[in-house]
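Quick illustration, no need to memorize.
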Amino acid sequence: MLSVKGLTKVYQQHKAVDHLSFDIKHHQSVALLGPNGAGKTTTLQMLSGLLTPTSGQIQFLGRKTVNRSRIGYLPQHPAFFSWMTAEEYLRFAGRLSDLSRRDVQEKSREVLRYVGLEKCGDRKIAGFSGGMKQRLGLAQALVHEPELLILDEPVSALDPSGRREVLDLMKDLKKRMTILFSTHVLHDAEQVCDEIIMLKNGTARWTGPLSELKTKHQTPSFILSAEESLEGWLEELPYVTGLTLDQPSKAEFHLSDRAYVRELLAECLRRNVSVLHFEQKTQSLEEIYMKVMGL
């Protein structure tokens, strides 16, 4: 659906985005991750046709031009006409996306219902809460039924309940369209996305499936606690590395291969060590993110 090759944006002497390349398939949900200043917003603006790249190529739906009528875009800080009602605003947005007067009326009411604002269509936007405005912004991006939905930090300004509502909408939307969204809330990305693009200083540090990222960079650790002391012998086992003793009878460590779990437990039996607790501890996406980004 979307293919990006060598995408670059230079402001004077500063490279905001530096030779970025990736591909997105139909009905994928892709998270663009990175710290502030990584180039996330600049990238999304180029992909949505709002900003002209310095160099590089964007191919969308088989064409080397960005067809904005088939893209829905929600900026990080959407602007509204506060004197408009929600339905007036969506009709205005729909007409800008070349919907007919007849279609825009029907679609406006349909998306208001979808985002949970069906009872607020005749209310002035000036009286909307932050969460309501964010849902209205999402409705604006959906009113013309785009094939690609681009969302810039869609949940960053929301409280926990508002964040949950928008994430649930995104989970449902990815059944119908392709989604590319930026976020710095890694837990949210983990819940919604299939693929990850990690940016740092305008360059990609990782592009690929979330599952592959976890498999490649995750180093599981193990926690063992016992009635007896683990000192003096556990660290001497050749397959145990990175051992840390929280107390003499409790340790966290790595195994050179997961196959050594049985051998370790057998060693405990040979030494008459009474195991109280044994578990494998996996890294969170945040820990993997810090590792890949070199933070």
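The first strand starts at residue 2 and ends at 11.
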